């Protein structure tokens, strides 16, 4: 089995290292910068509660060096996918499956979904249908990412919690290619069940992402703070109810109610969402996949989204507005007697 992890960041690096450690698959990674240099020099390392695992594997910033794969595991954020399409296609053979491991609404969402929206393309995550036309939705396998990990240093991944990577075909069938990938991931230490309703798994995670992520970017607050504050909790709850109404029109049924979902987020504690972390690091935020796509599906299903619309407008402005230095940042700037800032 040949598996390429395209985007060997925190999650991609975690998956790559654990798969490679089993010795059952030929695993390669596409990475860049200091992270790539460190992997080439010292291998890829994962640190967790059980200790440290180091693996040597093929790493490159030029996918064309790797040749066709059985599986390409795309572990980049959704807005990065159009940029990497020219390189990704060099990894595709006649039967290559592309595993989408991004948050939010996937570009293939309506492929083999049945019903009135069959084949509809979600513009917010796939402008002009470019991803759909280049990769082909028949290659897609859905994957919902639950593990939490960070890049501790170039070439070193810190895995903090979680091991669930549920998989699913857009059609809902338990195909041999999905079952084979599930077996490989299970052997690597993940829980990777093949779900007949992968879209339901996607919505359970998206339910929190659509609300808590943009609110965190707007306020700078952790999950515990958002859920513990009456005002922000009420905004999040209303956004989640709007999203739930859309999902239910698309045939999704939620196994828990909105208050239990919020309580679960609160239990995570003083955690910064990925959107807030991206904002603080000056990186693009996942606004389109997590929020704008839900708004688009609201328009498609004729579902009102007044709170989502408001927060989307605010977080888009936040993304376009330079961060104001904090008092602690300002204190780092010293002016000497000659008037020179240092």
From TrEMBL:
Catalytic reaction equation(s): (R)-pantoate + NADP(+) = 2-dehydropantoate + NADPH + H(+)
Enzyme class: oxidoreductase
GO molecular function, one term: 2-dehydropantoate 2-reductase activity
Residue intervals passing through the bilayer: none
Any one GO cellular component localisation term in the record: cytoplasm
Limits of the Ketopantoate reductase N-terminal domain: 3-105
Record domain Ketopantoate reductase C-terminal: where: 198-317
InterPro entries the UniProt entry points to: 6-PGluconate_DH-like_C_sf (IPR008927), 6PGD_dom2 (IPR013328), KPA_reductase (IPR013752), KPR-Related (IPR051402), KPR_N (IPR013332), NAD(P)-bd_dom_sf (IPR036291)
Pathway the protein contributes to: Cofactor biosynthesis; (R)-pantothenate biosynthesis; (R)-pantoate from 3-methyl-2-oxobutanoate: step 2/2
GO biological process, one term: pantothenate biosynthetic process
Keyword Oxidoreductase recorded: yes
UniProt keyword list: NADP, Oxidoreductase, Pantothenate biosynthesis
Highest taxon of source: Bacteria
The protein's Enzyme Commission number: 1.1.1.169
NCBIfam families named among the record's database cross-references: PRK06522.1-4
Entry function: Catalyzes the NADPH-dependent reduction of ketopantoate into pantoic acid.
UniProt similarity note: Belongs to the ketopantoate reductase family.
Name of the protein: 2-dehydropantoate 2-reductase
């Amino acid at each position: 089995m040949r598996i390429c992890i395209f985007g060997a960041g925190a999650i991609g690096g975690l998956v790559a290292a654990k798969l490679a450690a089993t010795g059952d698959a030929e695993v390669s990674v596409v990475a860049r910068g200091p992270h790539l240099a460190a992997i080439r020099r010292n291998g890829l390392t994962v640190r967790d509660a059980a200790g440290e695992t180091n693996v040597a594997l093929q790493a490159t910033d030029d996918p064309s060096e790797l040749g066709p794969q059985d599986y390409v595991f795309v572990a980049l954020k959704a807005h990065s996918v159009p940029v990497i399409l020219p390189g990704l296609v060099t990894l595709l053979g006649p039967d290559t499956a592309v595993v989408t491991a991004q948050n939010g609404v996937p570009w293939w969402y309506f492929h083999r979904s049945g019903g009135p929206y069959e084949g509809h393309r979600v513009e917010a995550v796939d402008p002009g249908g470019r991803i759909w036309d280049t990769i082909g939705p028949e290659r897609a396998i859905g994957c919902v990412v639950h593990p939490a990990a960070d890049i501790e240093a170039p070439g070193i991944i810190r895995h903090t919690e979680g091991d669930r990577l549920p998989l699913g075909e857009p059609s809902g069938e338990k195909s041999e290619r999905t079952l084979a990938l599930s077996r490989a991931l299970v052997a690597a230490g993940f829980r990777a069940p093949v779900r007949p309703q992968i879209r339901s798994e996607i919505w359970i995670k998206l339910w929190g992402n659509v609300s808590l992520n943009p609110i965190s970017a707007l306020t700078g607050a952790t999950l515990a703070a958002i859920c513990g504050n009456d005002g922000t909790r009420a905004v999040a709850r209303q956004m989640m109810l709007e999203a739930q109404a859309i999902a239910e029109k698309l045939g999704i049924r939620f196994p828990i109610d909105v208050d239990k979902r919020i309580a679960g987020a609160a239990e995570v504690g003083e955690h910064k969402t990925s959107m807030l972390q991206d904002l603080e690091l000056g990186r693009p935020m996942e606004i389109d996949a997590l929020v704008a796509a839900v708004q688009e599906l609201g328009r498609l299903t004729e579902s009102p989204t007044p709170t989502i619309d408001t927060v989307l407008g605010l977080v888009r402005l936040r993304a376009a507005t330079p961060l104001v230095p904090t008092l602690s940042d300002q204190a780092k700037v010293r002016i000497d007697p000659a008037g020179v800032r240092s």
